[in-house]
């Protein structure tokens, strides 16, 4: 989203007053070591089951890539610690516990111990920076060489996005999951015939992509010790929020504002995320209101940039992770929890135990003509 530069300048000054210094050596926990031979499916899968989802970061770069866009493995693992706080809920304000923990992969597809836990560095031999939409939608098997088995890992690609002057800068982009006959009631997702598919069935890099330009951009709340809803040290390019947001898409969530599946954000107000407990709003109108607010923005009224007006005319503060722009970005709702759990229970090409392991239909051993749907998060 393009924003008036005046707003950014004013916010930088206001937030500088209250931001605390970041700590470069924040302790973190990478989660339990996850080994295939040690991990067994629980006897009963229910809403209390904790899903531990292995993540592998693929850093794509070439000889001309600046070092600042090639994150080290420690920094990438640290991101998952903060993402897990958001998915556990109750850190910065009311939010449900999704009972999902993202853990860095410790072994590669062949079962060998990874040199850098959860991170691989791949050489990119094409034009760089990379057009993220072209990469994510390429269905020619060209980029699946970078992909690890989606049934065992969530693949997160990190690379510098190619800016398009005609569009807003993109922070992250993700594929949406599929549904099957078992979770066919999940609206908005593409349904596939087979409940069990393999890497051989897909010809595109099923994954999440994060813009390396902002890979080291974090809000001060993670290092300041402030476990409260606050705009202190707020940064709209916060990579933790971007990653949590894109992983939400990967597990079946849509944006909370009104948008069309074909045309994106629309200048209307209606519910398009299929979650009744997330208030929807007209994002185009919010952007116009924001421009007007920028003319008289002060420290006293800065909180108004976080306010939305829903389709019924009620004013509320934006806290949901599946929003973007100016948002406190810490909350998931029960309806969102339900959608993500249903994807985990039944959807193919998603890590974790399934409820229908023995009864799911198996796809033929060939590349399938699968629909590709992506969702992106622009500034």
Any overview of this molecule?
By secondary structure, the protein is of the alpha/beta class. The protein is built from seven helices and 13 strands. The chain has a domain at 43-254 and 332-378: Collagenase (Catalytic Domain) (3-Layer(aba) Sandwich). Strands 1, 2, 3, 4, 5, 8 and 13 form a seven-stranded mixed beta sheet that branches. It has a two-stranded parallel ribbon with strand order 6-7. A two-stranded antiparallel sheet has the order 9-10.
Itemize the secondary structure elements and their pairings.
Elements: H1 5-18, E1 51-61, H2 73-88, E2 100-104, E3 119-123, H3 132-137, E4 154-159, E5 170-175, E6 178-179, E7 190-191, E8 208-211, H4 221-224, H5 239-250, E9 259-260, E10 264-265, H6 283-293, E11 307-309, E12 315-317, H7 334-346, E13 374-378
Parallel strand pairs: 1-2, 1-3, 1-4, 4-8, 6-7
Antiparallel strand pairs: 5-8, 5-13, 9-10, 11-12
Helix pairs in contact: 2-5
């Amino acid at each position: 989203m393009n924003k008036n530069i005046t707003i950014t300048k004013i916010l930088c000054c206001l937030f500088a007053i209250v931001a605390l210094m970041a700590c470069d050596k924040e302790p973190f926990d990478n989660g339990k070591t996850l080994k295939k031979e040690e991990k067994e499916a629980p006897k009963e899968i229910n809403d209390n089951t904790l899903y531990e989802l292995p993540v592998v970061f693929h850093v794509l770069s070439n000889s001309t890539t600046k070092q600042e866009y090639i994150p080290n493995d420690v920094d990438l693992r640290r991101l998952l610690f903060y993402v897990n706080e958001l998915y556990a809920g109750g850190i910065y304000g009311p939010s449900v516990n999704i009972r999902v923990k993202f853990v860095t992969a410790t072994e590669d597809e062949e079962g060998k111990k990874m040199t850098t836990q959860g991170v691989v560095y791949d050489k990119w031999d094409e034009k760089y920076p990379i057009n993220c939409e072209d990469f994510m939608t390429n269905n020619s098997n060209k980029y699946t060489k970078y992909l690890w088995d989606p049934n065992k890992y969530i693949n997160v690609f990190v690379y510098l996005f190619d800016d398009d002057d005609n569009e807003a800068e993109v922070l992250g982009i993700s594929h949406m999951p599929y549904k099957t006959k078992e979770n066919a009631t999940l609206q908005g997702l593409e349904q596939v015939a087979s409940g069990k598919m393999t890497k051989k069935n897909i010809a595109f890099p099923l994954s999440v992509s994060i813009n390396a330009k902002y890979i080291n951009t974090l809000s001060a709340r993670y290092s300041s010790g402030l476990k409260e809803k606050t705009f202190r040290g707020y940064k709209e390019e916060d990579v933790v929020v971007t990653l949590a947001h894109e992983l939400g898409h990967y597990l079946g969530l849509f944006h909370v504002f009104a948008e069309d599946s074909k045309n994106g954000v629309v200048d209307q107000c209606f519910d398009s995320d299929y979650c009744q407990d997330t208030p929807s709003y007209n994002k185009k109108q919010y952007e116009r209101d924001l421009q007007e607010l920028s003319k008289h923005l002060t420290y006293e009224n800065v909180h108004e940039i976080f306010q939305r007006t829903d389709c019924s005319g009620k004013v509320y503060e934006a806290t949901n992770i599946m929003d973007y722009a100016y948002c406190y970005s810490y909350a998931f709702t029960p309806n969102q929890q339900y959608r993500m759990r249903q994807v985990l229970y039944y959807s193919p090409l998603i890590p974790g135990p399934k409820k229908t392991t023995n009864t799911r239909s198996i796809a033929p051993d060939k590349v399938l003509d699968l629909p590709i749907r992506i969702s992106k998060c622009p500034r």
